[in-house]
Amino acid sequence: MGASLPPKEANHFKLIVRSYETKQYKKGLKAADTILKKFPDHGETLSMKGLILNCMDRKAEAYELVRLGLKNDLRSHVCWHVYGLLYRSDREYREAIKCYRNALRIDPDNIEILRDLSLLQAQMRDLTGFVETRQRLLSLKPNHRMNWIGFAVSHHLNSNASKAIEILEAYEGTLDDDYPPDNERCEHGEMLLYKISLLEECGSLDRALEELRRKEAKIVDKLAYKEQEVSLLLKLNRLEEAGGLYRALLLLNPDNYRYYEGLQKCVGLYSEKSQYSSDEIERLDALYKSLQQQYTGSSAAKRIPLDFLQEEKFREAAECYIRPLLTKGVPSLFSDLSPLYDQPGKADILEKLMLNLETSIKKTGGFPGSMEKEPPSTLLWALFFVAQHYDRRGQYDIALGKIDEAINHTPTVIDLYSVKSRILKHAGDLTAAAALADEARCMDLADRYINSECVKRMLQADQVTAAEKTAVLFTKDGDQHNNLYDMQCMWYELASGESYFRQGDLGRALKRFLAVEKHYADITEDQFDFHSYCLRKMTLRKYVEMLRFQDRLHSHSYFRKAACGAVRCYIKLFDSPPKSVTEEDEEMLKLAPSQKKKMRQKQRKAEARAKKEAQSKNEETNTSNVSKSGKRHAKAVDPDPHGEKLLQVEGPLMEATKYLKLLQKHSPDS
Predict the structure, then answer these.
(1) What pTM was estimated for this model as a whole?
(2) Helix (H/G/I), strand (E/B), else coil: 40
(3) What is the pLDDT of residues 529-550, one digit of tens each?
(4) CA dist., res. 301 & res. 285, Å (int)
(5) Which of 110, 191, 324, 362 is the most buried (most CB within 10 A)?
(6) Which DSSP string corresponds to 42-69?
(7) Domains in the chain, CATH or no CATH each
């Protein structure tokens, strides 16, 4: 770098590189200008100056300088590398890869360029290229741990787990017997667990278990060790050993449902569809009774039997589970039991049970068959449950009667108003539901969840302006609506988009739906920083899990809803295209003079109102964007706040097809 320069200017060039790496951009620019005074056509200096300007958000100048630098020195790997970095910063990954490859033709052994290329190949899932680049890095620097691990991971991602195991074993062969030192024990332990997970993936279960137990002393994460061991024992059908280990894990966490599921598999009493014979139900009941005695504080050991018990046994178990939770006052009790409503007959049993408990508390002040008096709040939570029960069954009048009774009993409990709002929504009275949700919100202005629930109800009632004002109460000061976008508040954008669509405001609806799509693009981009971080920190199992999650990211329900919403908008836009200015003028000509005058007045008022709102928003933004030091932090102004430009698309059906193809690819069963 800077080799064609005299010694003094070469030192200045090194200063430019150092200033870029340490983010001292003004210092770097000064050094670049010093060189360019004497050598105005020096390609590498022009490129580095462009790279620094790019970091200072002067992109147009940056591209101009980098292209000029490249034109002046096409045989410089630095110029090509910098051009690639510019494309990478703009997420033009394919173009960046081309630039890196051109740089490597000039300097094939440049470690830095090879590393940058490997990150882009992982991002773009060019797995064959990723394997080749990681192999090249390892051959150039075999004493670097990260190169061994990167080469192994590249083969794993390229569906060659057996080769990845060979590479990790070769790497272990280079280590001393007393490795790792204390400061690297966690990273080395993670690498060993990753290797064992690869052996499990390849089907070498005996070898994986042997390796796991042999390396136990070097694995720091003991919980992960035990979970990996019990998984292997279960797959090897060594059920007695696995059962003992699951019981040991339950001592650590008696509310982990996966441990109970594993224990059921060990005793041969597990069904994915939860369909059991009467004999199996009896054996399961006996198992969970013993577990309840062993893990007395476990809620899961009492809750799981409700899924498989039937009739009278179910009623008894449900009553034992519900009573203490009503006394304690657990608002989420109904949410906990709501999956039981999908099983035939159980909703009827719960209804009789709860009505019996409610009646007993009203008459005697306690539960049936109990001499102890319950606190007054127990009746409140019983009514709360019963109201939600009738709401679930579609009996809204009875549900409203019960929730009103609970509100009369204790008018200060916010959850009662939230549930009443939900019942009204289900009953179809959206305006009343929004008003009641707002009443609940006003009872606790510091509760973000209740605020969000209120916003949701307002949007369902198409009260978008009120919803926005309520939502921004929990955002930072300044450009408040943009804060919701910056926070990737997708539930709000989807609900707001649906409301605008119902009101026929396609521009704003489309803007909200496309904002959600943009969030998913950002989430995809966010994985980029983890390609090097995870290899460095050796969080390899989670890294591979994250990459696989990213590959199915667009099957998530929020993306599906946004894509479907955008498709509906484009279809409606095709069916009813917006009127052009000429058509509007023609319609105005047909009107009577008095009507024209009224129409123009309306237009002028609307324009004045919009202008005033924009000015007040700008003033708020300017005030809030002044820091303590007095510097203003300029924020990008949205050039199309109402989505009017989005409606000017030439082919709405082409745009709709683009999203339909994404849905077909990622959510074919929806």
Answers:
(1) 0.84
(2) coil
(3) 999 999 999 999 999 999 999 9
(4) 10
(5) 191
(6) -HHHHHHHHHHHHHTT-HHHHHHHHHHH
(7) 1-108 (1.25.40.10), 310-383 (no CATH), 504-580+641-670 (1.25.40.1010)
